[in-house]
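Justification of computing resources. Each target in the renewal requires a structure prediction run like the one illustrated here; the chain below, 452 residues long, is used simply to show the kind of job we budget for.
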Amino acid sequence: MNKEKLGTENIYKLLASLAIPAVIAQIVNLLYNIVDRIYIGHIPGIGAAALTGVGLFAPILMMINAFAMFSGSGGAPKASIFLGAKETDKAEKVIGNCFSLTLFLAVVLTVLFYIFAPQLLTFFGASSTTLPYALQYARIYILGTITVLIVMGMNPFITIQGFAKTSMMTTVIGAVINIILDPIFIFVLDMGVQGAAIATVLSQAVGAIWILRFLTGNTTILHLKKSCMQIEKDILFPCLALGISTFVMISTESILSMTFTSSLSRFGGDLAVGAMTIITSVSQLVSMPLQGICQGGQTIISYNFGARKNARVKKAFYAELFICGAYSIGFWIMMMVLPKVFASVFTSDASLTSYTAGVLRIYMAGIFATGFQISCQNSFVGLGQAKISLFLAVLRKLILLIPLILILPMFMQDKVFAVFLAEPVSDILAATITTITFVTKFNKILEKGPTK
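Resulting structure tokens:
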């Protein structure tokens, strides 16, 4: 896409051209974890225990993802704002600085998580039955941390230039490879959980190579250059200030996952933890497409905000808000009507399927509000509002959800029900507060304009 179209083309047509590939990319990216869990959950004899074990790796996985997005989620909007202001040199410095940070974080995270994986998994609630499966998966996945960070951290820099289809192909190629390799490694080569991890790492590596070849090739507008990789605090720090909200959003998912699994392990045992593993995967079916829609909307918002085209910024936001709201409401209806269908995809164990279907309705009762929460949160990031987006990132999980998980069981007889009930209560409260905050501040932010 010609970057000038970001400032001139019809908003709805533009949003569709950017958001549809981004949504497809997010859904395909989701397959990395979902396909693993579907295959693992159907391993004869050990499926339920293995699925629960892999689910216990979720807090570590989310921390890796959080650091992957730390530089990219803040750097990409910042680079887009520079691009809209015709400051290409600064935009390329942003990419180079963020890539250097990505490499540094990859080394640190690989060493720390590999060494302390057994202790962390036990702390998260692994039992003597599930720990071996959790550890087999974790250690192999951790060795591929650098590929995860490159894929998740650098792919947004392709999207903000208008190359949404190229960005989509990053995840499509990797996911297709993962889908092909999973059954080969798990069943044909009889490698079980370890095979699932190897397939995922290899597919992520292909995605990382794809991204680096594009960003250093001739097609890209902004190039990843060695000369731009020297860290400059005036370039990197504003990106990190903006990216901290996304980092907090994802990293608190790790804390949240840990809180959920430890509480459910105490009150409901391995069955409840296994159900939570499935529910986490199902919930990504709503959150990741919403992130894809907002990724397309954020590109339009950031570019036009940098170009001081406020009317287009408003149109882009309200189009994004409407689509996200409609999607989350539609997903909520499906969860209320067909919970058992979604649960059965991940396991052939009858007792786990039945149990999950029951608690899935509770957990998803407030999911209709998620579209409003995510669209407003991401639009604050697109407008360069680091402090506000950070507060809202903290609000739903740290201020509302995690305390509710710990407090509600004190006042309810059914402890497991109380733990799952915390989710819809926090969803509705957080969405209400976030939407009101955005509507209140939106015009003032546009009038003030971007800070560089």
